[in-house]
Structure formats: C-alpha cells, structure tokens
Amino acid sequence: MLTTARSGRTLAVYLALRFLVSIGGLFLLAAVLIFVFDALELLRRASDQEGASLARIGLISLLRVPQLMEQVLPFAVLFGAITAFLGLSRKLELVVARAAGVSVWQFTAPALAVGLLIGIAAVLVYNPLAVVLRTQSDEIASGLFGREQNFLLQTTGDIWLRQDGVDGESVLHAKQILDNGERLLGVTVFTFDRKGSFVERIEAREAVLADQSWRLSSGTVYSTSGDPRAFTSYSVSTYLTPTEVRESIAAPESIGFWDLPRVIELSQRAGLPAYRYSLQYQTLLARPALLAAMVLIAACVSLRVSRMGGVGRLILGGILAGFVLYVLSELGKDLGGAGIVPPLLAAWAPGVFGVLMGITILLHLEDG
C-alpha cells in the first residue's frame, strides 16, 4: 500500500514536471518571437527620430513584452498541455498508465495543479511586475515616437479631455499618458472664457496634475490678443481630481492587481462608474479558472487521441475550442466593460463554462 502511494506521488510529480517544462518552453518561445517582431516594428517607426538607438529600442521592447505576454498565457497553457499530453501518448506512457489502472483524473490532476499554480502566480506576482516594467518602458520611450506614441505604447488613441475650472472651460489633448493619467506628454490645451469664447491655445511638452490645476512646462501660448510667447511653466485651472482623470483616460491594464481594489474604491467614492476596473480585477481573479479550462480541453484531446487516432483533426478541434473560449472571454470583457453585464459574471463565466465543459467531456469519454 505504501509502495502504491509512493508510486502515485512519483508519477504525479513526473507528469507535473513534464507539463511545466512544456508550458514554460512554449511561453518563452512566444516571448522571444514577440520581442523580435515588436522591436523590429518599433525600430522601423522610430528610425528617423532623434535618440532612437538600437539599445534603447531593444530595452523598450524588452520591458513591454511581459505585459504583452499576459494575452498569450492562456494559449501557452493550452498548446503546452496538448504538447505534453501528445508526447506522453506517442511514447505510450499514457497507455501503460491506463493499463496499470491509472484513471484519466489521476493523470489530468497534475496538469490541472500546474495550470492553477501558473494562474495564481500570474495574478499575484507576474501581473504587478508586468505593469511596473511597462511603466518603465513608457518612461524610457517618452517623446520618442511623436504622434504614434500612444498607438505603440498604450494601444489607445490620442487623449481628449473636456474640463472646467476657475478660469473657465478648456479642452485638453495629449499624445501620451503616464502615472495613471496624472502626467501627460505632448499636450495641447484650448481655453475658453466664461462666455464660451476662445481665448488661447497652449502647447506644452508636459502637464502634471496638481491642486486643481494642470502645471504645464516648456511650451508656447498662442493668444487671440497678442503674439505667441514661450514659457517654462504655465498653469491651467481644472476641477478634475486624479480619480476622475484616471477613470477617464487610464487603461485598466496599466494598474497592477494589488492596486485595483484601491482604484475601484476611489472611483466609487467619487461617484464614478468603475466597471472597467472591477472587470479587470475579476478577470485577473478568474485567470486560474481559465487556465484550468485550457488544461481540461487539452486533456479531452489527448484522451481521444490515445483511443481513436486522428491526431491532426483532434488537435485542431482542441485548438478551436481554446480559441472559442478565449473569444467568449473577450466578449465578456467588452460587455462587462460597458456595464451591460455585471463584471463578476463577465469575468468568471468563460472560465467556469470551460471547466464544466471539459469535465463533462472527460466523464463521457472515461465512463461512457
């Protein structure tokens, strides 16, 4: 009895290591490919910009890769688990294990444990680190890409804000956001008086949100009543708070897992909708369930391969199932971000559905 238990633990550790190596290898391979293509694209777009060196572009891309890889992680788990299962099938290790009385649940449990642990580590450690590195990347790239800065680094369009202040209304336009929206680069401000008449256009290198004002630096004022004049420091009044600015323009992906509850609370206290941040928080919490669903899909494919053959067709089915699950998760994010579906439901439904679907298929294949 003791020997059987010890053999079971040895098999579980062996299988877990096989899955971990397979998933980790695919993840690193995808990271290298993304880094190469991203660096080449950034280098092409910044080739005519002053200060664009190969080392700087490489560092910017290297720091961007961890956050880009968050979108790839579910597929790395899916393909890695399929690869590991197929390797075990081709070497007849699964066949021998089945003949020895090992059930599908016993050789799937180590893969599920690896998927869940990867998901937990991705949420608690990897996501906050990726956000910090992305912030450093934006700092290094500051001012390098001109009008394309936001498209390349923030994956959003230019920033527009309509605001009111002590001196009247104004419209603010920025090309890049930093520090969760409290610092803007490439800023243009159009100011109006209390009667709604245009007063001046202000162009500045940088704007920092201070006490009820934007502190502009290194720019030029173009007024209807005089010649343009340069300035080193200029102030434009605003009633916007840091929370309101963050809610208006900061992407939820730019906030780490541990900071999201505070941002959600601040938004709710300010009377602002926090759908996007609540959805991002719940999506991160649900990530282990999504990765577990990917592992179960891979297990369904491997079991059918060992019994029925037709490797290519079955693998394609598993990949399509994984893509459908990912599309459902993205659709849920769109609906949840718009407030149409509660964030909790939008974030958890795809992962829970995938897990239940995988368990149902495995029960059918195992027990008929």
Describe the structure.
It is a single chain. By secondary structure, the chain is an alpha+beta fold. It has 2 domains: 230 residues, no CATH class; 93 residues, no CATH class. The protein is built from 12 helices and 7 strands. A hairpin with a 5-residue loop joins β6 and β7. It is elongated and about 90 Å long. About 3% of the residues have low confidence.
Keywords:
alpha+beta; 2 domains; elongated; 12 helices; 7 strands; seven-stranded antiparallel β-sheet; 368 residues
Order of helices and strands: HHHHHHEEEEEEEHHHHHH
The description of the largest β-sheet is: 7 strands, antiparallel
Envelope shape? elongated
What is the straight-line distance between the termini?
Answer: 30 Å
Give the number of domains. Answer: 2
Main structural class: alpha+beta
Which spans have pLDDT < 50 for at least 5 consecutive residues? Answer: 146-157
Secondary structure tally, helices? 12
Helical amount:
55-70%
For the secondary structure, the number of strands is: 7
Rg, nearest Å:
26 Å
Determine the mean pLDDT: 82
Query: What proportion of the residues form beta strands (DSSP E)?
Result: 15-25%
Topology of this structure?
Blueprint: H1 2-46, H2 54-69, H3 73-90, H4 93-99, H5 104-140, H6 149-153, E1 159-163, E2 170-174, E3 176-178, E4 183-192, E5 198-210, E6 213-223, E7 229-237, H7 242-249, H8 260-269, H9 275-285, H10 287-308, H11 311-337, H12 343-367
Antiparallel strand pairs: 1-2, 2-4, 3-4, 4-5, 5-6, 6-7
